[in-house]
Amino acid sequence: MIKIGIVGGTGYTGVELLRLLAQHPQAHVEVITSRSEEGQRVADMYPNLRGHYDNLKFSVPDVTALGACDVVFFATPHGVAHAMAGELLSTSTRIIDLSADFRLKDSEEWSRWYGQPHGAPELLETAVYGLPEVNREAIRTARLIAVPGCYPTAAQLGLIPLLEAGLADPARIIADCKSGVSGAGRGTNLGSLFCESTESMKAYAVAGHRHLPEISQGLRQAVGGPVGLTFVPHLTPMIRGIHATLYSTVVDHSVDLQALFEQRYANEPFVDVMPAGSHPETRSVRGANVCRIAVHRPQGGDLVVVLSVIDNLVKGASGQAVQNMNIALGLDETLGLSHPALMP
Ligand SMILES: NC(=O)C1=CN([C@@H]2O[C@H](COP(=O)(O)OP(=O)(O)OC[C@H]3O[C@@H](n4cnc5c(N)ncnc54)[C@H](OP(=O)(O)O)[C@@H]3O)[C@@H](O)[C@H]2O)C=CC1
Ligand SMILES: CC(=O)N[C@@H](CCC(=O)OP(=O)(O)O)C(=O)O
Fold this sequence. Notes:
Elements: E1 2-7, H1 12-22, E2 27-33, H2 42-45, E3 58-59, H3 63-67, E4 71-74, H4 80-89, E5 94-97, H5 107-114, E6 127-129, H6 132-140, E7 144-146, H7 150-164, E8 173-179, H8 194-197, E9 202-203, H9 211-223, E10 229-235, E11 242-249, H10 257-264, E12 271-273, E13 291-296, E14 303-310, H11 314-328
Parallel strand pairs: 1-2, 1-4, 2-3, 4-5, 5-7, 6-7, 8-10, 12-13
Antiparallel strand pairs: 8-11, 9-10, 11-14, 13-14
Helix pairs in contact: 1-11, 6-11, 7-9
InterPro entries: AGPR, AGPR_AS, AGPR_dimerisation_dom, AGPR_type-1, NAD(P)-bd_dom_sf, Semialdehyde_DH_NAD-bd
GO molecular function: N-acetyl-gamma-glutamyl-phosphate reductase activity; NAD binding; NADP+ binding
Domain Semialdehyde dehydrogenase NAD-binding: 3-142
């Protein structure tokens, strides 16, 4: 069995990791941390886990206990993995970080967007961006994996086929994205209250969101040059889900975009290119580690519109983290992740 440690087990991504690992045939969670819930039984806090983790208790983070694990997931706010990763990497454990600590390759850019100094710039060379559909080979040997953010996963998977093939104008890309409220985490937050977020929808961070540099970094890699990206996130009254509507201009009208997407993702277990004309719904991916994509060219014009949906807590966080673990440990990539979504 693979010995697992989780730092930050009380947030939504932490409990989602536990749910997914409960059905993973080779995973055993040995350590789960919470400073505020030390000594509490996990299944008392999250009754959905009763019968799965009846003896597991929260403990305070301890590098010795975590370093004895084969894999340590960080499901913590930004900066926590910076502080602990160096010491943990001196053991034989692998780190899979769900926070943004190691996603941006430029530490100064990270500092500008996250409003604090980068705590471990010396580890950036080691870190691999954990988007398997792009970086699978590097993930196989990685010791430190930065799991992509939720909006960046939906946006990059929708845009990369066009940009890699040189079929969209990289100077003008629009990512119009909607997120469910769980994307804001479990912490107390006025905007996440039921009365503040239900029966209403709004854009936020139009001037600049911290996922803008992350999406741009991935798109630049796909293009091999600069990109002009406008990213507008919205909060929508649902618990889980990201819906990305992605716009660009087609530069070669002779190419069959449906075939292009189908070929690009033909061997990807967790990307579903839907039939031409489809409109993927967020509920079709709820609870599943899947990105469903549909590509449109309205009225056969110059504009390409890609629709990309994920569950922010699964393919947008914890599911993608488990997918990375499977790849890094040489396991079947789909272990623990092959269940279908919840419907309705
Ligand atoms: N929600 C989402 O959809 C997504 C979230 N993410 C990222 O995943 C990470 C986790 O998010 P989320 O699950 O929402 O939970 P939170 O960001 O609310 O994380 C809370 C967890 O981290 C622990 N924690 C907080 N501070 C520290 C610290 N200094 N040292 C050790 N542990 C600490 C908390 O436990 P305690 O304080 O008791 O120790 C708690 O268990 C974040 O970086 C988030 O941005 C990524 C993609 C999607
Ligand atoms: C709806 C909502 O608030 N979403 C979060 C993004 C989700 C997230 O946690 O992203 P990181 O992993 O990069 O922190 C936000 O806009 O800040």
